[in-house]
Amino acid sequence: MADGVALVATAMNGIVVGEVHASSSGLFCFSHVLTDVTVAVDPDYRRQGIARSLFESFFAEIAKRLPHISRVELISRESNTAAIHFYEQLGFVREGRLEGRIKNMDGSFEADIPMGWNRTSPTR
Ligand SMILES: CC(C)(COP(=O)(O)OP(=O)(O)OC[C@H]1O[C@@H](n2cnc3c(N)ncnc32)[C@H](O)[C@@H]1OP(=O)(O)O)[C@@H](O)C(=O)NCCC(=O)NCCS
Q1: Is the pTM value of this prediction over 0.90?
Q2: Is the shortest distance between the CB of 46 and ligand 1 below 6 Å?
């Protein structure tokens, strides 16, 4: 992906068991930003470190191929406490609370939590 990052994790048999991707808007004012980070791991393969490994590769790819990226952002529903805790471990910080943004299958609403990772010394 020329203007973003997309990585997959595969099992020994070659099937895809995890994925992470993020994109750039293409606008100059956001040219240092990767947005809409999304990660998912096959339920049968969770709690084995796959998401952590994907993010290690994700940030390595940014450092190697996209050194101008100094900000990465995502949004996670508030009830996804495991994911939010994981993102905090990776250096993402909660940047607010979007009240009622998510509509659940039962018709209830919950907040979405915007999170950002900022490189302390951006490459210019
Ligand atoms: C969130 C998700 C990507 C984690 O994938 P994973 O491969 O199981 O994660 P890892 O094994 O690499 O664990 C990374 C960390 O996430 C946290 N974590 C993951 N699953 C967790 C759970 N069920 N309960 C508590 N913490 C959890 C832990 O902090 C863990 O670190 P640790 O094992 O050192 O304690 C996976 O559960 C998933 O695909 N969920 C559905 C999609 C989703 O919610 N994506 C995020 C949308 S914002």
Answers
A1: yes
A2: yes
The string of pLDDT tens digits covering residues 24-82 is 998 999 999 999 999 999 999 999 999 999 999 999 999 999 999 999 999 999 999 99
CA of 78 to the centre of ligand 1 (A): 14
Q: Does the beta carbon of 76 lie inside 6 Å of ligand 1? A: yes
What domains, with CATH codes, occur in the chain? Answer: 4-118 (3.40.630.30)
The answer to whether the CB of 41 is under 6 A from ligand 1 is yes
Using alpha carbons, list the distances in angstroms from residue 18 to 47, 55, 82, 124: 12, 11, 17, 32
CA of 102 relative to ligand 1 center, distance in Å: 20
Q: What DSSP letter does each residue of 13-47 carry, written as one string?
A: TS-EEEEEEEE----GGGTTEEEEEEEEE-GGGTT
